Recover the amino acids of this structure.
């Protein structure tokens, strides 16, 4: 039963756990990471007040939203933004992830259909189908925006360049794309968008874009492209999932810093 002392109603760990629908082990874990701070009696036993029960209810509610425990602790301790603002930001992230997952699912289905076709092809024809499938995915995901921004002629020319790549050139392009993700993680670890690793990241990304564009004659247009990534949840999901939160913005900062350093050299 609950115990009352000095006008305060106390609960034992098992009583609070049963009330909240959690285990006593969960209560101990929350205590170990600073989420709950139970009262300790003279003999060392834990006791929880109504305020602790309310805090536990808030923790459980925020967990259902998918918030990390560290974020929940900061919110409850007043070390972060307001709960409403934090949840609003979290909702935007979830929606962006949802759109990204829809695209991944669609691409997976398309890849399965392509594999069925490729299984019955000669090696040369299978490679050509692989390239064509990649371009179809690009058109389905980014085609409308890209054509509106750069025009049909530019996108058609880019597609033609991709289809003209040899298998070695295509493989090198794919390897460069994956290497950019690794370099992005390395550069972010420095915390400096103008570091040597960040400059190498910018050079690698510029080479990758130049393959699609047939070279980069307009550096401002290229910088605008990279800066525009941050306004598109698809690009944010792509780079941030590869290198961590903030990776998309860091890439834009690295490209901007690299171009600025070139102008001063």
């Amino acid at each position: 039963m609950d115990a009352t002392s000095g006008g305060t109603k106390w609960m034992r760990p098992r009583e609070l756990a049963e009330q909240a629908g959690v285990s006593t082990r969960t209560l101990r874990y929350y205590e170990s990471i600073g989420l709950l701070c139970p009262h300790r009696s003279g003999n060392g036993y834990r006791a929880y007040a109504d305020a602790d029960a309310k805090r536990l209810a808030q923790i459980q509610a925020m967990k259902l939203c998918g918030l990390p425990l560290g974020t929940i602790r900061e919110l409850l301790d007043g070390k972060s933004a307001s709960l409403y603002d934090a949840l609003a930001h979290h909702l935007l992230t979830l929606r962006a992830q949802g759109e990204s997952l829809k695209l991944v699912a669609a691409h997976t289905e398309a890849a399965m259909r392509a594999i069925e076709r490729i299984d019955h092809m000669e090696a040369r024809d299978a490679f050509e189908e692989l390239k064509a499938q990649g371009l179809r995915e690009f058109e389905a995901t980014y085609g409308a925006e890209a054509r509106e921004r750069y025009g049909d002629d530019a996108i058609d020319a880019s597609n033609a360049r991709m289809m003209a790549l040899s298998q070695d050139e295509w493989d090198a392009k794919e390897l460069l794309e994956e290497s950019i993700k690794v370099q992005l993680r390395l550069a972010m670890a420095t915390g400096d968008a103008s570091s040597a690793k960040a400059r190498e990241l910018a050079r690698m990304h510029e080479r990758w874009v130049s393959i699609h564009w047939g070279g980069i004659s307009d550096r401002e247009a290229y910088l605008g492209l990279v800066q525009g990534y941050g306004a598109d949840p698809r690009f944010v999901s792509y780079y941030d999932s590869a290198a961590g939160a903030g990776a998309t913005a860091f890439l834009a900062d690295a490209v901007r810093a690299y171009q600025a350093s070139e102008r001063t050299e």
Q: What stands out?
A: The two ends are 76 Å apart (CA to CA). Residues 111 and 133 are 8 Å apart (CA to CA).
